[in-house]
Amino acid sequence: MKPGVIKVKVNPDQCQGCRACESVCSLFHLGQVMPDATGIRISEPSLGHFEQTVCQQCIDMVCAEPCPVDTISRDAYSGAVVIGENCIGCGKCAEACPIGAISMITTDGKKMAFKCDLCGGLPECVKICPREALGW
Amino acid sequence: MYGYVDKVLRIDLTSGSISNEPLNQEYMKRYLGGEGYGMALLWDEVPHDADPFSPDNMLSFNTGPLTGTPMASASRMSINFISPLSNTMGASNIGSHLGAEIKFSGYDTIIFSGAAKGPVYALIHNDQVEIRDASHLWGKDTRETTEALLEELGDNYKIACIGQGGENLSKLACIFSDDCFAGRGGAGAVMGSKNLKAVAVKGTGAVLVKDKDSFLAANKEAIEEIRSEEYTWGAVHGYGTPAWIGGVDECGMLPTRNFRENAFDEIEKLLPYNLWNDTDNFEIRRRACYSCQLGCHKYVTMKTETDDVPVGELEYETIAALGPRCGVSDYRDISMANYYLTLHGLDTISAGATVSAAMEWYEEGLIGKEDLDGLELNFGNGKAMVELIRKMGLREGAGDLFSDGSEVAARRIGKSTLDYTMTVKGMEISASDPRGSSAMTIAFGTSERGACHMRPYAGTIDAFGYLYPDLGVTEAKDPFDDNEDKTWLKAVKEFFVVTNLIGICDFNVINCELKASTLAKIYTALTGIETDKDELLRKAERTIALERAFNYERGFRRADDRLPKRFMKEAAPYGPPKGRTVDMETALTRFYEACSYDQETAIPTAEKFTQLGMEDISRQLSL
Q: Global pTM?
C-alpha cells in the first residue's frame, strides 16, 4: 500500500464525532442517508477520541488488483480511485484494502462496493465538517 | 415517504405485544412530527386525567422528519409523556446519536404503553424487536447500564436508559443516552414506573430524501446562517453552552442564591476559560450529537489524587444551577455534583434548584441539620451540596425528602417554605432571572411543561438585543416593558417549537441564526411536501394549542401561568434590571392577546381553534 497525495486528509484531534461527513457522503452519492453506506467512517476507540477511516487513494491501487471485472480505475479528472458501474459486489476489493475503507452495500437490491471518490473533485465531507478536521 | 420512514413501533409492556403501523398522516399534516406527533398520541390515546405513574401513561420517542439527515444538528427527538413533576403534558427533547439510530432502524416513533411486571429492556434492531429481562441491570447507574448492554449486544448499539433516580420514581429523573439527557419533567421516572430500564437500538436502514440537490443547497444556506453568527460560531462553538454565563451575569439575569440575587460576586471563577485552562485538574473533549455543526457538548474528566472522575457534560444550565444558584464557585464541587446526577440520572437544573431552595430554607431556619443528616446546608457549602445531591439520586436518608423536587419537599415540610420555592407548575425555573427579561417572564410562566427556558429562550432578543428579521423582529425590544405588544414573542416561541417538531436542536435558533424560511426550503426538499415559513409556524401553533388544551383538561388555568411571588415583590438588586419587579398580570394579558387565548382559561378561543382547523379539539373541550 502506497498512500496517494490527493485524498481526504484528516486531523483526528479536531474531530468532534458528529458524523455529518458520513451523513452527507451517503446522501450525496446515493440520494438517501444510510449509516453503513459511507465513504468515510468515524469511530470512537476511546472516549472523546475519534478515528476517521477514509480511502487513501493509493498510488498502487491494491484494491484494483483482485477485481474480477477490472472495474476499479483512477478517475482522469479528480485522480480518485473509483469503482465502476460493472461492480458485481464480490467484495474482493474490500478484503484487499489494508485499512478497511471500502464498504459493501446494498442499494435497490443490488450489492456493490462503495468507497470515497472525492465527490468528483470537491469532497462534500470536507465542506460540511464544522471543525475543519477534514481537508484535502 | 421521504424524510419520514412512515412506520411507528408499538410496544405494550403489560401484554408484551409488539406491532407496527404506518405514520398517522393526519397528525403529520397538523403537527408535522416530533413533539407534535407525541402530543397527538397523548391526546387521542391516554385518559386526560391519567396518573403519570399509572400504566395508562404513555412514553413515546418521536423523531422528526429531519432527524438522521446531514442538516445541522439533525439529531433530536422528543420524548412525550404526562409529567409526574408538573402534572402537565411532558415533552423532553434529547440529542446524542439515538434519534438518528431510531430512524435508521426504520421507525419515526416508538410508543411504550402499559407497564412491565418486572425490569425489562427493549431491543430494537431493524425489524427484530424484543422485550428482554433486565433484572441484571436494575440497580445499576446509567454508565454501568450502558456498558453492560454494549458488552452484551455489541458496541454499535445506541442505548437510552435510566439510573437509580428513574428506578426510584424520583420526579426529577431523566433519560440518559451517551451523556445526553431528556432532562426535564421526570421522563426517567415514567420510564421507571413502566419497569423499562433501557432501550437499545441499532439500525441499518435509510432516510430517503426527495430532492437531493435542493436539500444540499438549502442545507448549505442553513450552515452558512449558523456559521455567520459570531457569538454562536465563536464562543458557543468553542466552549459550548458555558459561554453564556458571563453575559447572563452582566445582564443581571444569573440566578444567585435561589434568586435572592441576580448576579454572582464570584463569577470570575466560573468563566469557562478558567475551566478549560485548568489542565492540571480537568481534561475536556468535544463529543457532538449527530450531524451537529455547533458541537456544544463537551465531556469533562476531573483529575483527583486517587482517580479520574468522568464528570460528563457540564452545561451552562448545570453550572448555573449547581454554582451561583447555590452560591458555589468551585468547579470541583460543581463537577462532582454533575457526576452523581449523571450516574443516578437526575435533571441537573431541577436538582440544583432544589438544593438551592433547601439552602434558603436552612438559612431561614425552616429546616435544620436534623432534617439533613447533619449537613450544614448554607449557601456556598459545595461539599454539602454534593452530598445531598448524591443522596437525592438514591433516595438515601435526607435525600428522599428532596428527590421529587423543591415543591413536593416544600409541601411536605410546610411552614413558609413555599415562599422560597422557585417553581412554575411544579417545575423549577431554570437559569435566567425573569426580572431581567419580560420575554423570559412569559416564557417561564406560560411554558406548557412547567418553567422551561426553551419555550422560547427569548432573552436573547429583549435582554441581549438581538434581532430576528425573518420572524418579524426588526427592531430592539424593551426587556423591562411587560405591557409591550408580545406578538413577536408568539412567532419566536412557535419557531422554537418547530425545531422540536422537525428534529433539530434549538441552538440553531437561540441566537437568531437559522431562518424559518431556510428551514421550510429544507423540509420541502426533504419530503417533497410544499411548505413555507408560515405553515411551519402554524404547525407549532397547533401543537402548542393541543398542549394547552391537554393542560386545561388537567385543571390548569391562568393562575398556573404565574411566576413565584418573589419576582413580583422583591426588586432585582443588581445590573440592568436593578430595582425592577415583574408585572405578571400585564405580561400574561399581553401574551394571551397576542396568541388569542381566553384570558381566564388560558387556552385558545373557539374561534382560534377553528382558524387552526382544530374544531374537533374545541368540541371535545365543549367550548
A: 0.97
